[in-house]
Design brief:
- 44% of the residues lie in helices and 17% in strands.
- By secondary structure, the chain is α/β, with parallel strands linked by helices.
- The chain has two domains: 1-115 and 275-305, Isopropylmalate Dehydrogenase (3-Layer(aba) Sandwich); 120-267, Isopropylmalate Dehydrogenase (3-Layer(aba) Sandwich), CATH 3.40.718.
- The protein has an eleven-stranded mixed sheet, with helices on both faces.
- Strand 2, helix 2 (38-45) and strand 3 form a beta-alpha-beta unit.
- Helix 4 (81-90) packs parallel to helix 5.
- The radius of gyration is 19 Å and the shape is globular.
């Protein structure tokens, strides 16, 4: 398997990204394609011992920064690392792409280079939230789309259902809409109109609204929301978990095992759903452990044939 890694994206790029890739190459038979500024990547690699037949440098002369406009950057930086890495998947030279960089740019690259599924307007990012049942609940979207229409939330639900068959091994997952109340009439215009579409969708096991306090209750298998809400929620959960870990370490001198499940570095990355290829989005502040686990996520998505299974599940929902 060949995995393209945008080594220039993220707060700790390229050193931590390259360190994770080297570690993965030592422990697997996969090939890692390190996409970035060739001289810089080669210089960093000199600090490591690694299998040269499984670690390759792919030159990319430009970088899309975190504060760059994705649309503008895609036009002006055609040789950016995330664009080049995504193109490797499109050309069949890589099986998956991974980046810790600008999420908007990664989504734009997935849209314009890989292409989206038929009848899917925008890709969505799915994240796994630990629940009290000892499993996890899928939250979609968590940052790919900040402004959404009701039809897109319905698409997120269908994509979430498809991914649940892969990640949770559930063919008829319970789908809920994140809202500020459980009543059908609750919420803003987006929530109310989305509720109607979700309720009317044939073959969708829609159970209604779910409130923020019930996210961890295991009442739903997939929770749908717009990317603006989902991203704030995900980061609030991360922040609360970090505060709880700190308090427990001071007061109990140990960390409850449940809290460790909220450490994003253990998951590493989340797939973009609805695009013609495996594209893994990693946390911008990822260090080597998180990137290493993100590579594992990429590999799992390829092995499980995520793209094909999404399409199959979507076709069965129509």
């Amino acid at each position: 398997m060949r995995i393209a890694i945008d080594v220039m994206g993220g707060d700790h790029a390229p050193v931590e990204i390259i360190a994770a890739a080297v570690e993965w190459a030592k422990k697997s038979d996969d090939e890692l394609l390190l996409v970035g500024k060739e001289d810089l990547v080669a210089k960093i690699l000199q600090n490591y011992t690694y299998p040269p037949d499984r670690v390759h440098i792919i030159s990319a002369t430009q970088v899309i920064e975190m504060d760059d406009s994705p649309a503008t950057a895609m036009r002006r930086k055609k040789d950016a690392s995330i664009v080049v890495a995504t193109r490797l998947v499109k050309e069949g030279r890589a099986d998956a792409v991974l980046s810790c960089g600008n999420t908007g740019a990664q989504m734009a690259a997935a849209l314009f280079v890989l292409g989206r599924f038929e009848n899917i307007d925008r890709p969505a990012i799915v994240a796994a939230i630990p629940n009290r049942a000892g499993s996890h609940t899928l939250l979609v979207d968590v940052g790919a789309n900040v402004d959404c229409k009701p039809q897109q939330l319905l698409q997120f639900a269908l994509l979430g259902k498809a991914y649940a068959s892969i990640d949770l091994d559930i063919n008829e997952p319970r789908i809920a809409l994140l809202n500020n109340g459980t009543e059908e009439s609750k919420g803003n215009v987006l929530a109310v109109e989305s509720y109607g579409l979700l309720k009317a969708q044939a073959g969708l096991n829609f159970i209604g609204n779910i409130e923020g306090r019930d996210i961890f209750s295991a009442q739903a298998d997939v929770i749908v929301c717009d990317g603006f809400t989902g991203n704030i929620l995900l980061k609030a959960i991360e922040g609360l978990a970090q505060a709880a870990v700190h308090s427990c370490s001071l007061e109990l001198e140990r960390i409850p095992s449940f809290l460790s499940k909220f450490d994003y570095s253990r998951v590493g990355g989340a797939p973009l759903l609805g695009v013609e290829g495996v594209s893994i989005v990693c946390h911008g502040s990822s260090k080597r452990e998180a990137v290493y686990n993100g590579i594992k996520t990429a590999r799992d998505c390829v092995v499980k044939d995520m793209v094909k299974k999404q399409k199959l599940a979507l076709s069965q929902s129509r």
